Amino acid sequence: MNSPDKRVLVGMSGGIDSTATCLMLKEQGYEIVGLTMWVWGDEPVEARQLAGSMGIEHHVADEREAFRKVIVQNFIDEYCQGRTPNPCVMCNPTFKFRILTEWADKLGCAFISTGHYSRLEEKNGKIYIVAGDDDKKDQSYFLWRLGQDVLRRCIFPLGTYTKLQVREYLREKGYQLKAEEGESMEVCFIKGDYRDFLREHSPEIDSAIGPGWFVSSEGVKLGEHKGFPYYTIGQRKGLEIALGKPAYVLKINPQKNTVMLGDAEQLRTEYMLTEQDNLIDEQEFFSASDLTVRIRYRSKPIPCTVKRLEDGRLFVHFLSEASAIAPGQSAVFYIGRRVVGGSFIASQRGIGLVISENEYCLLYTSPSPRDGAT
User: Could you give the residue ranges of the DSSP H alpha helices within 174-298?
Assistant: First the structure.
């Protein structure tokens, strides 16, 4: 056995990225231990077979019950509060990296590794997540909630690769069939439309919530909808209502079971509120002149300034156009390609912005940070 500081526990799904991760780390002289988290679906036989073919130690952590109670239930609950969840952001610290860390300690592994397309960088004694070189696959957005204790043990071998290069690497290593596999699902437990998932796993939504009204920004009833959990901010397709022009979901009011519709211009905003932040270095964060924010996965970084409010939330002022701010999604902040913090987009209820020279004054009526009313 190699020395303990060369043992690395790899999260193995059996897919393209985790397979390449194992092979790369093995080439770098690490002793690989594979861990497959069984959180959904059938028993992960493929990962075990791959580990066997590579001659590496392999374990399975059966977390199906806990995953359903925590991650899946949170996903359902968020939609039932009029918010738009991102289960990967919740899963990474709560499940994936927590389990990897616990098993690494148990198995004597100094490091943990995954197939995320991200890099790590140390600055002033802090470990930062850095966007992967492949802009189309970069997964830094999902990792903002990881703490320093976890990041110091992480290795992300794929951060300097593109997906095409990873596929070519697998071909060169004799894994031709694996290299040709399709992309994995963005949400591991959902195949198809999330609305069908909600109906299957929480059928009481229809009886407890039921149909409601589409309304205009003036409060005029426009027609009936199927229930607010089935809609998201910015949605245009699938509304099943004819208004003679394109309509978008502007706001969701779970208390009244109303969904406000309007045009694309009404989705644009100059500001937002966020909550439950994780900032790496607050002094650097609030003094940065080149801060940007991504308001959803794959969205372009938007230049911004940020101030902390007395109630602890962050007030974000966009310096270029932003649209379709969806409470529940993550706001991930960058300086260049380096993640300097993240936060959850909060309800925008009651917010008023007055601009006077370079000073921003926020007028609001103390709404609950988790209040989804419009």
Answer: 176-179, 194-201, 204-208, 282-287
